Amino acid sequence: MHGMKLQTTVEKGWLLEKLQENRDQHGSCYKEALEGYLAIAQKKLRAAMKKLKNGEAIVLQFNLHVPEDHTKDYDTVISMLEAHTEETITLNSQEFRMFVEDEWDWSDHWLISNAGYSGTTADLARRKGLM
User: What is the pTM of this model?
Assistant: First the structure.
């Protein structure tokens, strides 16, 4: 399919529903990852504080990546579609991949970086063969 200029025309309402569904799943995964991140960060900080209170000189270095949230990407596309005056919209293969199949340029990195904090995201990453 590389190099092909494939296009499809879809109903605007259907596309809006699909984007909202994808946005909701993304938001749910992000929320779960953020909760996991906060729990791990607090645990590491408590352990470090305990050592410091006991007079231990320790290296204070935490290698925790903050979960990524791409909700704004969905919001932008949803707003653009809501402003679209036609009942149908033509998508190229890259747009279809992002908006319908939920495969954005950042998707794989997002799944991998958030998988350590979220079971749901880890399951998605495993299904895609990323882990």
Answer: 0.86
